[in-house]
Amino acid sequence: MDIVDLARLQFASTTIFHYIFVPLSIGLSLLIAIMETLYVVKKDDGYKRMAQFWGKFLLINFAVGVVTGILQEFQFGMNWSDFSRFVGDVFGTPLAIEALLAFFLESTFIGLWIFGWDRLSKKVHLLSMWLVTIGTTLSALWILAANSFMQRPVGFEIHNGRAEMTDIFALLTNGQLIWEFPHTIFAAFTTGAFLIAGISAWYLLKQRDIPFFKKSFQISIIVGLISSFAVAMFGHQQAEYLIHTQPMKMAASEALWETSSDPAPWTVFATIDPSQKKNGTELKIPYLLSVLSYSKLSGSVPGMKELQTEYENQYGPGNYIPPVRTTFWSFRIMIAGGVGMILLAMYGVYLMLRKRLEQPNKWYLRIMLWAIGLPFISNTAGWIMTEMGRQPWTVFGILRTEDSVSPSVSKGQIWFSLISFSTIYLILLFILIFLFVRTTKKGPELADKVEHDIEDPFDQEVTTHAIFK
Prior knowledge:
73% of the residues lie in helices and 6% in strands. The protein is mainly alpha-helical.
């Protein structure tokens, strides 16, 4: 591997690992806010226990996720100094707002939520969790505003070899952000919903605390169904937008070397040969690519060979075709995961309406337990497709990846930081899984104990014991 590939590998590892935690925090905060709302409205203490129990998972995830975010920031200064110098003026505003407004909003009110059960009124305490939800969502908005600039740069001018922001409203109304943000947020809601549904399914299989986990499953599966459909809808809108702004990424995601026929078929499976720029065996569905690209049963899609010629004329000599196999299969993994979640959520809602959730559906509950991983797999595949499909650009059409790395960093330094960060991540992952499993096995009765343990928020020993035991 050369220095560029090593730096990309490290960026991928840190970003993917950090992104395990971000959507889960967003999704869990929404579901906990819904549960506590039901507690305030219905005056049913069962929903209070529910919010407290699932809040345990949110706190663990939030604590570990913050550490991964800090580590991720280090690599920009280490491996991507030329990229940071180029986009620093543009990225500075949204990232500063994310840290100073959104992150502090969620951090402050999650503290009030932890320690305020017996100190705040029910409505003020409920407001705290909704503000946590708003804060996590706003964090995603500002981060995605920066990422959208990399996909479709707007609102800037080039001065002295740097991109300088001229219009922040152009950044916030970027068409890429308009479709990417809801697609990502609803995917986060789905992530939280499937975690709660999967753990609830485990309890239903064990026949433990059935009323509690039956309600948890019902709430989460409804949110999961609505959110998974929304993910698909906004994903479709993104595809339509992509065909106009990044046609090469769209062509790579379809392994489309030659411009398609009209109407264009969608390729389900293909054996891809990038060296020969052709595919072997293919399985296609007629008309479907035209529908995905234009929402109609007609329309051709430009192929990579044609686009390569256009890009050479526009940007100069070079290879503008991204890693086709990675882009193609990550897109299909994302779609398969999304379809699987929709089908599982639909069947779960069907069982709920027919009052047949617990028995005799052990096979479904077992699948739901394993389906906890589906949104994480889909989220990761989606981001791989989004970032890899943009290559060879770091900022599309302006800054190439090979021109973004730090000029003074050596291979040995990158290897050292890659191994070090990966080791830290493995330790954090072990801690997360250990705490999640332990909390799951102890059950909802832990929530009552936590509430008792944190009566004195200034007692460091008691507070630490309550949050991490």
